[in-house]
Amino acid sequence: MEKYLICTDLDGTLLNDNHQVPKKTRRLLRKLMKEGHYFSVATGRLFHAANEFAKSVHEEAFTIASNGSIAASKDGIFHQIKTDNAALIKIYDVCRAEKVRAFFFSTDTVYFVGEMPSHFKEDDDKERVQAVKHVSINERETFLTHVDDMINGLIVEENDISRLHDLRAELEQLPNVHFLSSHHNNIEILPKSIDKAVAVQTLAERLGVKQENIIAFGDGENDLGMIEYAGIGVAMGNANEALKQKADFVTETNDKEGIYKFLKNRF
């Protein structure tokens, strides 16, 4: 039997608008895994939060977190690449000077500059920064104490979105760092040359799954590399237009069980 590796983003993809994995989708993924196929979440969330969702689908599920900086099986992390410390320090200094909210992630801790954004305190969005600990790093000395633990980061602008364009242009001059976006109001900070596609490739090779047998689902810019790399790249109905143009298929929206409908038809 040809084995497939199914990789899905979380927010706006696997999760519905209530931040839940739809029951029919979960049942089908479990059925496919029982038949010998593989499943992995592939998200920008930090490892702790991503792993919780992966295990809620199946205890044998794989976890790709921090936009490809981390990949893990049930036995633990087997792929981990952190962002260069010098780049993180420069980004921290710029964000503090510009008074822009920034978050830096280890595997289980969120370090944040400024106040936690209001929407991260609300029930609908607080899971996006779900972690064991949240640590304020408004003091530079505190930041430097923890920088060795930081794998990747996120810059958020809630009010003047146009500021992000100029800020990203400035930060992209830095060496050894890479930027993507998972939402119109953020900038994702990653190690150079790392994205979800790198981790998906690493996982597929580990499992012996052919590239043409990788099915990837996503909805945002940070899913683009994964969608292009997969043999079968699927954009959600709610995905941005750039992703839809690059995908092999477009399915229903995340709130209409797009993953379930595509996989049910495929298998």
UniProtKB/TrEMBL annotation:
Species assigned in the record: Listeria fleischmannii 1991
GO MF assignments: magnesium ion binding; phosphatase activity
Name by which UniProt lists this protein: Haloacid dehalogenase-like family hydrolase
Domain of life: Bacteria
CDD domains from the UniProt entry: HAD_Pase
Keyword annotations of the record: Hydrolase
InterPro entries, per database record: Cof, HAD-like_sf, HAD-SF_hydro_IIB, HAD_sf
GO CC aspect terms: cytosol
